[in-house]
Amino acid sequence: MAELKTALSPGRASPLEPREVLTGKPYWWDAAPPLTRKGSIPHDVDVLVIGSGFTGLSAALTLARGGQSVLVCDAQEIGHGASTRNGGHISSKLRRGLDSIASEHGEDVAIDAWNVAKSARAYLELLIEREKIDCDFRNCVRFYGAHRVKDYDKLARTVDTLKQKVGLRLEAIPKSDQHRYVQTEAYHGGLIDHETAGFHPAKFISGICERAEQAGAIVRSHTKVEKYEATATGFSVSTTRGTVHAKKIVLGTNGYTGREFPYFARRIIPIGSYIIATDQLSQKAVAQLMPGCELVIDTRRAASYMRMSPDRTRIMYGGRVAATEIGPFKSAPRLKAVLDSIFPSLRAVGITHSWMGFTGFSFDELPHLGHQDGVYYAMGYCGTGTAMATYLGHRMGLQILGQNESPNALECLELKTKSLYRGNPWFLSTIIAAYRLLDRFRL
Description:
The protein is an alpha/beta fold. The chain has helices spanning 2-6, 54-65, 98-105, 107-131, 149-165, 201-214, 262-265, 283-289, 328-342, 385-401, 428-440, and strands at residues 44-50, 70-73, 89-90, 138-145, 170-173, 190-198, 218-220, 225-231, 234-239, 242-251, 269-278, 295-298, 304-308, 315-319, 351-361, 368-372, 375-379.
């Protein structure tokens, strides 16, 4: 494409040459770096929130607005984890399909679970609008590409089922029509989702943190919770900044849940996801690649997703490119190779950012909300956490305030573990290696 050629750096020999602008920090941090919140911590609070991502800050906002005294603690900067590292897709989707959930729990539970996802997406949009959070939110179309020929038939059946039973606005797109949405031969048709959106996750974290603080919540970075013990009136919580007594605890650590929380660490599998951002292109060049959509995912077993940057001048591609966890500079050329296979015209275009973050998976591949021994939790988003984490954080707040409506399906399912799992996913490399092999040969 002529537009892509004019966007290249002059004299560049290879898009993967090391150069000074390549950074291991998320692209999102350029405009909204993680926040530092210093200061002392109170001796007593109604609720201590552990984790300052979508889950924790959403819960803190709801609780503070409900009249509770709230302390939010994070071991790193505010929003340092996956909430400012993800791809910024917002959807009404669960990782696990409707039929799969129904086969285990029944159709009513399956439909309810998918309706929670639909409610989560609607709640996030409402929250951004109500709180006037400037985070580049934009309703848009997402294309779901069929990596294998047989995947298209499955996606087409999914369209009919989710339309009828959940009311999602989906449409099957055969390969002959897919160029209207994405200019690639890598897919065998797919479906489009008319109810997705994109946003700038780091700007959203900055905005919701500010709103929570305005409501009265105390937010502290670099304040690691080391342990907690039950008392007659709540919990005694030891942090690196001192001890605090809390009547209740909210755990919002998801893929960053450490072994200081053994019950939860045994139930959440941290899985790294890796993302790159290309050099800046013209908006016309980016629009030529994705003429009818702004977001793309596909049916590979190992995660694969992309989007336009909010200013429509870059392509951001994310996925899983190694069986074991590797650094962002090692993952960068591997991600670029996959992106080039989807859009060959990008082969001469460089990358400026490469980063990673940990998603949190549950063993049943469903999000969960509940409480255990007085600790409230929401986690296990399985890569669908932008909307779900924000919504379930809010629902946790309502539970503690005694204002929760009747429990939904995700609040009623047990957060299970496996007998040999202690928080170290020793089995993951074998599974991911098999997934990548199957994806490579489209098996």
